From TrEMBL:
Lineage: Eukaryota, Metazoa, Chordata, Craniata, Vertebrata
Listed name of the protein: Uncharacterized protein
Domain of life per record: Eukaryota
Length: 793
């Protein structure tokens, strides 16, 4: 066995290995790179692992083995990385070189193919040019063939129609005409204008022949059925012997005419489209939706009526009068009414069996209505400079529309005559004339002899509002205007009339204000009170209108359309309130009318109080201090000085009750009671001293005489005289109670203790026990000091 080496040699060897290990791993995160830092690190490491304890040196071997093992692991890792990296890099480089070679080969191949393709295209270009020419020639020949085939088809259809008509095969002829109409619809996008013209001319030619033949037969059958029905039948006609044959012919002809409807509509559209687009300007009077063309049988049935209408209401006939629009309007309504039974019993069942979803009666009304529309539009333009005749035309048109919708059940979705009144010039003229007529009527009604008297003054049940005749006539005028424009199919036009109504209300308010100022010298007069009733009546009606469904709908329309004529001057908040239906379109007017009503009521009460206070002067100066006690008089009676004041109050209450409406009188007597309460409290009670007899007399005058005057209009009149009632309670207290109350109030006034904390009741509770709720403690002290009968005095 080898001798063990000395500890010093072992230590040096281990240190060398350790330093070698540290040197190898100097690039890692454990050791710094330079030698000086390495040495410092080793010294620190030894200090940490060994320290100053020599016994710990026995652990150096373990530490050395650990470091040797880590060093070996690091060496193996380095050798592994260094040995495996070059093959991978080489393989990647080889793959890249192979890819480069393949790419170059592909590029060369692509270039070769491209050159060959260009050579092939250059060689094939002449062939392609020749083939293109041949294809163009084939396409041209094919289009020519189709053109000729279409032309041949048209000629075949035309020959078929001719053959069918010669053999009286009407149904086959109609089918051939329908085929022509379908072909025309198919060629609508084609550029063959000459072919289209030829087809339409052919279609129109045969359609007219078939239509004329069917129309001639149809008119003969209608004549046998006594059509047209000009006047209401006086007796039911007995069916003729050949009634069944006539009915069969009628059904056959109506069905055949319905089958011809498609081509008839097509030709009508082709004929009307150019003229409408070139001759008719766009107008606000145009109905919002165009109705479909009239049913062909109905068109034929309308022909005799159209001839009669044009004969009587055009040209130089006496029946064609601008001042009598009701003549032709009434005549058309009569034709509608007289023909309705025939249409429903004879024509409607045939239409239903033929599968047509139309109403014969409505179709006839539509046809007649087109005549009236044309006539009204012509007359309206000629009457723009004659106010009276224009107003008359508008009235007749509105009446016609009303009867058309109600009596003849004309559908609301179909336009009547009202859209003609919405044309810009006509509507503006209507508004101007409406305002002019309304202003003239206002002048007349205010200057009339009975303008300020109520026509229901002798009927108490109907005269609660006591509205004067001028106010009632004015609101009736506004209501009539509302009824006139209510049926208009346009919210914008309705809002223009609403703006006119608001303007008229404001004008009438100004006129009432002017008359009121003239009558303000005598507010108790009948005319002044009538003006006040008129203002209150208008406020009441406008308030009801604000909750009316029609005006609420107009309110929503005004917000949605942003109509400046109605919403002008309103802020965002006001418009928002209108949108949420919290306000109304009449709020501004109601505010002005309420202010006028308040001013007039205040002036009326002020004048009344002036008269009462004049009568009350002796009562205010009465000798309240020297009046004997109550027990000295066997019976109490009203003070003689109070009689003029009481009579004046009674007479004024009766007068106001007679001349004012119920709601206004409620305001009047309550306002008078409030003013009279303050007057008596200030000028009678606080201005005098009272003995026991004087206080008792005052209480008797008030409770037995004054309060009952107002008791006719409420159950507890004393509640409207709180100051006087409570003052009488204080003045009439017996001496003991008065002394206790005075001491309590004085202590409360002088002492600043918290009553709630002290446990003693506050003075208000004592006053409440006596029935005093309105007067304050300081006021009660003043009243107690007005008593003359105190002990020791």
């Amino acid at each position: 066995m080898a001798a063990p080496s000395s500890p010093e040699k072992t230590m040096d060897k281990r240190t060398a290995i350790f330093l070698n290990s540290a040197y190898i791993t100097s690039g890692s995160e454990y050791f710094p790179a330079d030698s000086e830092k390495l040495q410092h690190y080793i010294v620190d490491f030894l200090e940490k692992e060994v320290g100053n304890d020599l016994k710990s040196l026995r652990n150096v071997g373990d530490l050395l083995e650990k470091l040797t093992e880590e060093n070996n692991v690091l060496e193996r890792q380095v050798l592994t990385v260094s040995s495996s990296a070059p093959p991978k890099v080489s393989a990647a480089l080889s793959a890249a070189e192979e890819a480069t070679c393949s790419l170059e080969a592909l590029l060369q191949k692509e270039q070769f193919i491209s050159n060959m393709l260009n050579q092939h295209l250059q060689g094939a270009q002449p062939w392609m040019d020749n083939l293109g020419q041949l294809l163009n020639q084939v396409d041209t020949i094919e289009r020519h063939m189709k053109y000729l085939q279409c032309l041949q088809h048209i000629e075949e259809l035309s020959a078929a129609v001719q053959q069918c008509l010669m053999t009286s095969s009407v149904w086959e002829a109609i089918r051939a005409v329908d085929s022509m109409a379908a072909l025309d619809a198919g060629l609508s996008e084609s550029g063959c204008s000459h072919l289209q013209d030829f087809l339409r001319e052919t279609l129109f030619f045969w359609h007219k022949i078939i239509k004329d033949r069917l129309a001639s037969d149809f008119e003969k059958v209608l004549t046998q059925l006594h059509w047209p029905i000009i006047s209401p039948p006086t007796q039911s006609l007995t069916p003729t012997a050949n009634y069944q044959e006539i009915s069969s012919q009628l059904e056959l002809l109506v069905t055949q005419l319905l089958a011809l409807q498609t081509s008839d509509d097509l030709l009508s559209q082709r004929t009307l489209a150019p003229s409408v687009s070139s001759t008719q300007p766009v107008s606000s009077a145009t109905p919002p939706s165009q109705a479909p063309p009239l049913c062909l049988p109905i068109q034929i049935m309308l022909l005799p009526l159209i001839r009669r209408f044009r004969y009587h209401f055009y040209g130089n006939r006496q029946t064609n009068s601008l001042s009598k629009p009701e003549w032709y309007l009434t005549q058309v309504l009569m034709w509608m009414g007289n023909s309705s039974t025939f249409m429903e019993e004879k024509i409607q069942p045939i239409l239903e069996r033929a599968g047509a979803t139309i109403s014969a009666r409505v179709e006839l009304c539509r046809g007649l209505l087109s005549l009236v529309q044309e006539k009204v539009a012509s007359d309206a333009c000629r009457l723009l400079y004659d106010d009276m005749l224009f107003c008359h035309l508008v009235e007749e048109v509105l009446q016609f529309e009303k009867e058309l919708r109600s009596n003849h059940s004309y559908p609301a979705v179909l336009p009547g005559l009202l859209h003609l009144l919405l044309e810009d010039t006509t509507l503006q003229k209507w508004l101007i004339v409406e305002k002019k007529m309304a202003v003239e009527k206002m002048d007349a009604m205010l200057s009339a002899e009975g303008a300020w008297s109520s026509q229901y003054k002798d009927i108490s049940d109907m005269d609660e509002l006591k509205a004067p005749d001028c106010a009632e006539t004015f609101m009736t005028l506004l209501q009539v205007i509302t009824e006139r424009y209510r049926a208009l199919p346009c919210h914008s036009a309705q809002l223009k009339f609403l703006g006119l109504q608001r303007e008229l209300v404001d004008d009438f308010r100004i006129r009432l204000t002017q008359v009121m100022k003239e009558e303000s010298r005598c507010p108790l007069g009948v005319r002044y009170c009538a003006i006040l009733n008129a203002v209150n009546y208008i406020c009441t009606i406008l308030g009801d209108w604000g909750d009316n469904v029609f005006f609420l709908q107009l309110q929503q329309a005004a917000v949605s359309l942003g109509e400046e004529a109605v919403l002008g001057g309103l802020g965002v908040m006001e418009v928002g309130r209108l949108a949420s239906l919290e306000g109304s379109l009449f709020e501004g007017l109601l505010a002005l009318l309420d202010r006028l009503k308040g001013d007039m009521m205040g002036r009326l009460l002020e004048w009344t109080m002036r008269e009462i206070t004049e009568k009350a002067k002796p009562y205010c100066q009465d000798r309240w201090l020297s009046l004997p006690s109550q027990h000295d008089q066997s019976t109490m009676s009203l003070s003689s000085s109070a009689c003029p004041m009481m009579l004046c109050v009674r007479d004024r209450l009766l007068n106001l009750h007679q001349v004012l409406s119920l709601s206004l009188f409620q305001l009047a007597w309550q306002g008078l009671a409030e003013r009279l309460d303050n007057f008596l409290y200030q000028d009678v009670i606080l201005s005098n001293h009272f003995s026991d007899g004087g206080a008792a007399q005052l209480q008797f005058d008030m409770t037995r005489n004054l309060f009952p005057l107002f008791g006719h209009y409420c159950k507890r009149p004393e509640n409207f005289f709180k100051h006087v009632k409570e003052a009488c309670i204080i003045l009439c207290l017996n001496v003991g109670s008065a002394i206790l109350l005075r001491n309590l109030l004085k202590e409360t006034e002088e002492d600043t203790r918290d009553w709630a904390g002290a446990g003693d009741p506050p003075p208000e509770s004592a006053l409440h026990e006596l029935g005093v709720y309105c007067l304050a403690s300081c006021d009660v002290l003043i009243l107690l000091n007005l008593r003359a009968s105190w002990p020791g005095q």
